[in-house]
Design brief:
The structure is a single chain. The protein is of the alpha/beta class. It contains eight helices and nine strands. It has two domains: 2-167, Spore Coat Polysaccharide Biosynthesis Protein SpsA, Chain A; 170-255, no CATH class. Strands 1, 2, 3, 4, 5, 6, 7, 8 and 9 form a nine-stranded mixed β-sheet that branches. Helix 6 (200-215) runs antiparallel to helix 7 (222-248).
Length: 262
């Protein structure tokens, strides 16, 4: 067993958390879970699986992940989300690496995003390289609230995959952008003083579709490539449509809590 601390941040992940912990325990001698005040059985299940569990009201993506660093005992950490799993190839890479001798500060892993059991291979979804295994005295997530990624300075890319069960089905693929991601994005833009115009949703939504379908190769993915590109475009369209609504409609603004983006 390597001297690596596994890190998972959670919110109502009772369906995923045990499998995520077991996946990390293949290579980690401890697993730390930072829970954002779940109302389901996430913490209970995590403790029963052998993880160290700490409670922290949600601070945003990168900030929350860095909270775990206060509790780890090892220099090297492996950070995953509750819906991610290590592949046998990734386990073998980790087991074969001498972390005491390597001159790298971290390793970037290919994330294989899935809808159901279908691999989202086209449209910029793969290889989705992310630094997830790193020395936390030299690298860490930036303290940002959305889409935080560990810097790639002095890191090496591994040809090994991390499975990401991103969406359960197409319905969830379209529901999440409409319900969560676009609202978060619109609030962040509004708080930052960004402005939208009547054409902004059309422009950004259309550009997102064009880039993902034609430039990033979604067209090669058949009907799934088309569907995924439409979902990306919908998220972009809604984000700017909601930003425009915040600017134009005082009643909508009054009913939103802009101090709590998450």
């Amino acid at each position: 067993m390597k001297k690596i601390s596994g890190i998972i941040t959670t919110l109502n992940e009772e369906r995923n958390i045990e499998a995520a912990i077991r996946s990390l325990q293949q290579v980690c001698d401890e697993v730390v879970v930072v829970d954002s005040e779940s109302t389901d059985r996430t913490r209970e299940i995590a403790q029963a699986a052998g993880a160290l569990v700490y409670i922290q009201p949600y601070l945003g993506d990168g900030i929350q992940k860095n909270v775990a660093l206060k509790y780890v005992k090892n220099l090297w950490v492996l950070s995953i989300d509750a819906d991610e799993r290590l592949t046998p190839e990734l386990v073998a890479k980790i087991e074969a690496t001498d972390f005491d001798q390597t001159h790298y500060d971290g390793f970037a892993i290919r994330r294989r995003n899935l809808v159901g059991s279908r691999w989202m291979r086209w449209g910029g979804w793969y290889p989705d390289y992310l630094v997830r295994l790193y020395r936390h005295d030299r690298l860490r997530f930036p303290d940002v609230k959305q889409h935080a990624t560990v810097p790639t300075a002095n890191t090496r890319r591994w040809k090994a995959d991390l499975l990401h069960y991103r969406f359960k089905n197409i319905g969830e693929l379209f529901a999440k952008p409409g319900r969560n991601y676009s609202t978060r994005g619109a609030k962040i833009l509004y708080n930052a003083g960004r402005r939208a115009h009547w054409w902004s949703p059309i422009w950004h939504g259309g550009a997102a579709f064009f880039v993902n379908y034609f430039i990033r190769g979604g067209i090669l993915g058949g009907i799934d490539g088309l569907t995924f590109s439409k979902a990306v475009a919908l998220n972009s369209y809604l984000k700017y449509a909601k930003l425009l609504e915040y600017q134009r409609d005082p009643k909508v603004r009054e009913e939103e809590d802009f101090t709590s983006v998450w």
